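User: For a benchmark we're assembling, each entry needs the component sequences followed by a predicted structure for the full assembly. Here are entry 17's components. Please fill in the structure.
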Amino acid sequence: MNLADEVVALLTDPFMQRALLAALLVGAAAPVVGTYLVQRRLSLLGDGIGHVALTGVALGWLVGAAMGLAPNEALAIPGAVVAAVVGSVLIEVVRRRGRTSGDLALALMFYGGIAGGVLLIGIAGGSSGSLMSYLFGSISTVTTSDLVITVVLCAVILAVGVGLRSALFAVSHDEEFAVAAGLPVWLLNMAVAVLAALTVTVSMRVVGLLLVSALMIVPVAVAQQLTHAFRRTMAVAAVVGVVVCVAGLTITYWNNVSPGATIVVLAIAVYVLAVAARPLLARRAPARDPHPDIPDDVVLTTAPAAAGGGKECAP
Amino acid sequence: MSALTAGRRTVAEPTDPDAPVIEARGVHVRLGASHVLRGVDLAVRRGEVVALLGANGSGKSTLVRTLVGVLPAESGTVSLPPLERVGYVPQRVSAGGGVPSTAEEVVASGLLHPRRLRPPRGWRARVREALDQVGLADRAHDAIGQLSGGQQQRVLIARALVRRPEVLVLDEPVAGVDRPSQEQFARTMTALVDGGLTVLVVLHELGELAQLVTRAVVLRHGRVVHDGPPPAALGDHSALGHDHVHPHAADDMAPRRGEPGGTLLDPTLGIETEVRP
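Assistant: Structure for entry 17:
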């Protein structure tokens, strides 16, 4: 079989079609939300939400089992969505109360999320092994109904994340000014929290909860090496996200390796390349003295003091 | 505004041209355990340039932050024009968050207001115009973090001006700012005030703005202790050819006014370390 046949086979495989579409959407959506998280210095928030989402998965499983639903995990994803939204809203509330306790709240989410998930899945009659596909992703098993959820949620994330970009930027950049400008700051902060939660749950199928944050943050880190504008950072990050997700998934079509891990390793490889390429890009920029000669306030000659004599005071 | 819990906040659109555009009555603000403002009255009329002076901790910043709705007042009333017609310049923020942004992007966020969460058509031209007003048109695409402190402050002023405000509220716009930026700031303000802008500005010293300020309000320990003409001696010293206001130079002015607030006009005015209870 030559390469063209291989590609045709890949593109006509319904499993692969669904997986590719999911990877494409998640690859674009995750870095868009990640840009806001990095701007707010909350790069680890995605991880915290991911851990809480695990409890949600187990809780959904438990409820599904209790209701006697056909596949026990039918409610796993809705459970994850609910838990992730509740968790990220809680973090946002704690963050607003005082900055120091935000860090502690994140830590509590990490531990409580994992422990709760493992505990509940046991009660539901599963084993911690049942959680593996959520922890590390299972994109090749994406069903049509999974795909519908993914498409809808990604559309919402992209519409809000890109459409309200200016307002979300304003709030993340300078909250005090945003309040004085009359923006609905509380609502916009909550929007970022909910977007982060939704992103975590849609990315869960592609890279797994443990690696979700990587998909949100690493493309932003790549983009920062290449640009210093906020909008362009977001755009470049989304492109990087799509490329690594689709490329990583394609690799796993021929090689039996974990898609989630492949995608994240690819993203980090791109980051290393970008760091290496940065000096080359920088050299092309015209040299400019960032500190041109400007007059200062310091009087160096000992001129007779104006009135009252003596000290010069700096402004 | 939801920021005010106990205090009342109104949006004023006075038809009477002599009515104040900014008004605070009996504003009391507590931050934690300390009473930062204790019943402050302040009125700014159309076209006035009011300087808010006082030592560090006297409540100047707290007052303007309460006026624009960043801080809640415990009691008292505040009235201000609708927020889309108010430009607010906070004390300089550090160079932003974890993602760098350009001067153009920061200024563009000034175009948003309660009824507009997306930039309007033609926003680039308006941003360029505002950056031009502060003399930074050529730095539009530079990252904020690469600009000097004074230039960053001018970007924040442009962010307020891009709204085309009727009222500009500035919190220490020239504190620790390099000389060219201060001069540029004075030029910008002169042009705007000539165009009819109303200004409330928190200052440590009148400095470059001395000619422009029509009235000075002095706060001490959260109370207004002077409301009237700006201290004359400071004006003399910022005259042409004078590089700096000198704290001990104004022997001729202190006892002059024989009014209760007279001591305020002593030369330590505005020099934070020397004003003590």
